[in-house]
UniProtKB/TrEMBL annotation:
Region described as Disordered: 598-637
Residue stretches making up the Cation/H+ exchanger transmembrane domain: 17-390
Membrane topology: Multi-pass membrane protein
Name the record gives this protein: K+/H+ antiporter
NCBIfam families per record: PRK05326.1-1 (NF003714), PRK05326.1-2 (NF003715), PRK05326.1-3 (NF003716)
Organism: Pelagibacterium lentulum
């Protein structure tokens, strides 16, 4: 009577196991892992192994649930420092950028797919947001270290742009169902947008604070805390949607608030949420893959691929460039942000809404969105590392791998127990002393435990147990790290000449003749000067140009001050790989130069005619006011 249950469970569990095993292929060959999950769903579906699944309502329900888990974890893993550093550009990308992408892609879809303009806008809204799961995986797990400002911009944007895409998609679906024009509903739409976003922010902040209070005050079994957090996160998502707000935004903000406060058992929470997020991604991509019918792709394949390429090479770059104009991003940084606009499960999930609403072209929109996601993951997902290398945005590693395990202490302690494994060639193995604040308490050597005071010199293979504040972990990592693999361009990236950032800025003037602005105190340290010029926050690889000098951040301490700096002298600035994407400052300088040149030409008196030596006829003078400078000579950022 219930014999169907066991085959269903076996198939579902088997697909999940296969998805996890294929992650080895993704890590080995650099393939986008989410593309693997999606491919397994397609292979197992009706046009592959023959599994029949066409319940769009169930797919949307499971996808929404998974989205809540993914967005909460995205916020939980985003540091408030990174959020503050790039909040303005990221939020503009997540709102105005999504609207611009919708408009540009919508017009293109109107012509390429033969849709009405309103249907084209719906198609644009469906594929307007970047996928948080894909971006976080490629930037955090992909094995490359991107400059902090660019990485934070991409992570915050991808984690916060889903609410706007969801709002626009629902809005256009309702317009198509009701048959009402956009102009007639403008006021209601604006009010609805304000309510959705406002409720999302308010409930998200309140829910995040509530999670912190509940976890820190309740005495539960240790394994129940992660379950409680997950249940509350999904409740926040559902409650906000029930009240008419954006549940996606509320889930992300709740994670951001809770993740940046001290909560009990945070390390176990992080591990649990990592596993649940992976499970949510696998299940969502498998179900969306099962829902699709590849046999239907042929009829829309060419226009869908054309629209995907238009999105990658035209719509996304235009939206990103316009949104980042007011900010000090270099051309290559804007180009990379434009390229890492991966589409993923959210676009396919939103493409289910036209099917649920029984729109005439719903099936075509779903298949088109699916092909766009596949194209994006194939083209952009597989080229993230080469693109970052070509644009010079990868930060060379300063330390090698570190083997350590952090164990959070019971209660609400401000310290945690860290266990380091001493590897050959690390500074401590070579005789470097541990700082006093590290509080080493135990050494395990050859299976025997002993007090640190009686262990003598630290040897390779030892396990060192110590109690430290979490913010000091990065400093200890440098002592226990294996020797770093020195990249060929390491000195070029971090500067060939090391300087002491604690020295006053006047020392650079005396040594190198650097001109100091009148409003800069000569007694200010080099570190303070660099942090101030960098907007209050310094990260490895940041650069500060001062005349013919360039100061480079090699490392930072726990307080965000520059701990180690490098210097380059009379070095020609590296030309931008991308010749377009002029930022706001470059455009202003270019416009100012053109205006001055035009003004000089207007003020210059008319040239007097000169007599021709042969005929005596007067010829106009050929004097000019000097050669004109091409746009390519605009000063680089």
């Amino acid at each position: 009577m219930v014999d169907w249950i066991f085959p269903l469970i076996l198939i579902g569990a088997g697909l999940i196991v296969i998805s996890v095993l294929t992650s080895l292929v993704a890590f080995r060959f650099g393939a986008p892992l989410l593309l693997i999950f999606l491919g397994i769903g397609l292979v197992a579906g009706s046009d592959g192994l023959g599994l029949q699944f066409d319940d769009v309502n169930t797919a949307y329900f499971v996808g929404s649930l998974a989205l809540a888990v993914i967005l909460f974890d995205s916020g939980f893993g985003t540091s408030l420092k990174a959020f503050r550093q790039t909040a303005a550009p990221s939020i503009i990308l997540a709102t105005i950028g999504v609207v611009l992408t919708t408009l540009v892609v919508g017009i293109a879809a109107h012509f390429v797919l033969g849709l009405t303009l309103l249907e084209g806008m719906l198609m644009g809204a469906i594929v307007s947001s970047t996928d948080a799961a894909a971006v976080f995986f490629l930037l955090r797990v992909g094995g490359i270290t991107i400059r902090e400002k660019v990485r934070s911009t991409l992570e915050v944007e991808s984690g916060s742009n889903d609410p706007m895409a969801i709002f626009l998609t629902v809005m256009f679906v309702e317009l198509l169902i009701s048959g009402t024009s956009l102009g007639e509903l403008t006021h209601e739409l604006l009010a609805g947008f304000a309510i959705q976003m406002g409720l999302g922010v308010v409930v998200g902040i309140g829910g995040g604070l509530l999670i912190v209070q509940v976890i820190n005050r309740l005495e539960l079994e240790g394994a129940l805390y992660p379950i409680m957090v997950l249940g509350m996160a999904i409740s926040i998502f559902a409650l906000t949607g029930l009240l008419g707000g954006s549940g996606a935004l509320a889930a992300y903000i709740a994670g951001l608030v809770a993740g940046n406060r001290r909560v009990r058992g945070k390390s176990s929470l992080v591990r649990f949420q990592d596993g649940m997020t992976w499970l949510a991604q696998i299940v969502m991509f498998l179900i969306l893959g099962l829902l699709a019918n590849p046999s239907q792709f042929a009829s829309v394949a060419l226009p869908a691929i054309a629209l995907a390429l238009f999105l990658m090479f035209v719509a996304r770059p235009i939206a990103v460039w316009l949104c980042l104009l007011p900010f000090r991003y270099q051309r290559d940084e804007i180009a990379f942000v434009s390229w890492v606009g991966l589409r993923g499960a959210v676009s396919i999930l939103l493409a289910i809404l036209p099917l649920i609403a029984f729109l005439p072209n719903g099936t075509m929109m779903f298949n088109t969105a699916f092909i766009i996601v596949l194209t994006s993951l194939l083209v952009q997902g597989w080229t993230i590392r080469p693109m970052a290398q070509w644009l010079g945005l990868i930060v060379p590693p300063r330390i090698g791998p570190v083997e350590r395990v952090g164990l959070e202490l019971p209660g609400n302690a401000h310290h945690e127990l860290i266990v380091y494994h001493v590897v050959p060639g690390s500074p401590v193995a070579e005789g470097e002393r541990l700082p006093r604040w590290a509080r080493p308490s135990l050494v395990v050597r050859d299976g025997q435990s002993m007090r640190y005071q009686y262990a003598g010199r630290i040897k390779p293979g030892d396990y060192i147990y110590m109690f430290i504040a979490p913010r000091y972990t990065r400093l200890l990592d440098r002592l226990f790290a294996s020797p770093a693999k020195v990249e060929a361009d390491d000195k070029d990236f971090f500067g060939a000449f090391p300087i002491n950032p604690e020295k006053p800025i006047s020392a650079l003037r005396e040594a190198y003749g650097m001109n100091i602005a009148p409003n800069v105190s000569a007694d200010k340290s080099i570190s303070e000067f660099m942090v101030e010029r960098l907007g209050g926050s310094a990260e490895e690889g940041d650069r500060v140009a001062v005349g013919n000098l360039e100061l480079i951040v090699r490392s930072v301490d726990v307080n965000g001050n520059v701990a180690d700096a490098g210097l380059t002298i009379d070095q020609e600035p590296q030309p931008a790989r991308v010749k377009f994407f002029l930022n706001g400052r470059e455009l202003l300088e270019l416009a100012t130069t053109r205006m001055r040149r035009l003004k000089r030409r207007r003020q210059k008196p008319f040239a007097k005619p000169v007599a021709s030596p042969a005929s005596g006829a007067e010829q106009p003078s050929t004097e000019t006011d000097g050669p004109t400078e091409p746009i390519e000579n605009a000063r680089q950022s």
